[in-house]
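Still learning. Show one?

>
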Amino acid sequence: MHEAGHAFLARLGKTKLRPDGIDATNWLVEKAGIGPDTKILEVACNMGTTMIMLAKKYGCSVTGLDLDEKALTKARENIEKNGLADRLQVLQASAFELPFEDASFDIVINEAMLTMLTGDSKDRALAEYARVLKPGGVLLTKSAAQAPSFRHGVKPRIAVRR
């Protein structure tokens, strides 16, 4: 049986796959210079939690994608419930074959999925992210193996820019 990594973790009781929690996500996005005109792609958007937070906080538009249609159904419900259908859209697609033109986004966000990829798979995903980023665009990503934890008061020193 093959199942998405987040589905497996959910069966183990993990309800959110967010390395180092919301504090790390907030720190990361605050460094990105997001504004109302920023065009963002979130890869592996799951239920749309980060997309919704970004649209509410920054007034930006976000496109989310995920392979899991059940997660996308929940994301659509969450987007509608928050009244953000005019700024947020989701679609089923693969990180290895992003259905967008070159240089389409200012920011690509991938919070945890890269952690689950190895070798050539990780390289393929990163190449696609680079392809769809505009010149000077930013990839925001975190690793589940990141240490030390934000819970211990230690914050990362850098945000990587392309």
Remarks:
- Residues 144-152, 154-162 have pLDDT under 50 and may be disordered.
- The first strand starts at residue 39 and ends at 43.
